[in-house]
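Example (one chain per record):
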Amino acid sequence: MGMVSIKEVEKHFKRDHLTRPMIKYFYYKITIWSSWIFVNLRFHENFVTFLSLFFALISAYLIFFVGGSWLILAAVFFVYGLVIDLADGTVARYYGRGSVLGLWFDEVIGFLSYFVVFMAVMMRHFIDTGDLWLIALGGYTIFSYMMINYAALFSQFMRSKHNLENPVEKLRKKASGKIGGFLNPGAFAFSLDVQWTLVGLGILFNAPYFLFIAFSVISTVQWGSRFFIFWGK
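Predicted structure:
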């Protein structure tokens, strides 16, 4: 079997992702090239998904045991996890495969990737400084990450059960309309591309307080607003 062309692989990229500016203008090309490599190496999509955790573990190792200028590489490795998260779906669609198990595996790997990196940042800085606030903030950030994933599933369940429109999307469109429609509604979401990039910046600049406070505040607003919107439904 010959080499698959990059254009053939590109056809299977989920176009909905391009409504997110960071993916469209930065992560898209990297994802296509990575997907092309994975397809031609005959990697199974679940193995591609696992690579995200592999890079996160390397990132966590560099954060906790090495530090210094190696944090640049740690940030790159972690952020590349987003590319893999986009690539595994592209690979699965290329092969015409998809399953509930695959989606579950993707969610589990995503959580573990965040967990090991958040723990590495939290514990490294706690050991260095003895600051208990970092334990509290890091712990809440991990909890808040779980909640935004749960809230997304809860929102989907409620819309399906009660045949409701997506109120969060309506709010984003309204916000976009107030500024003349210059921004796509997806730009207002704390979506995966924003999450991975925010964590990458926190690692890169060795800024645990920035990372934990920014991530926990934004994620709390997101999952809290979903519960508020659906309250009483």
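Caption: The chain has one domain: 6-229.
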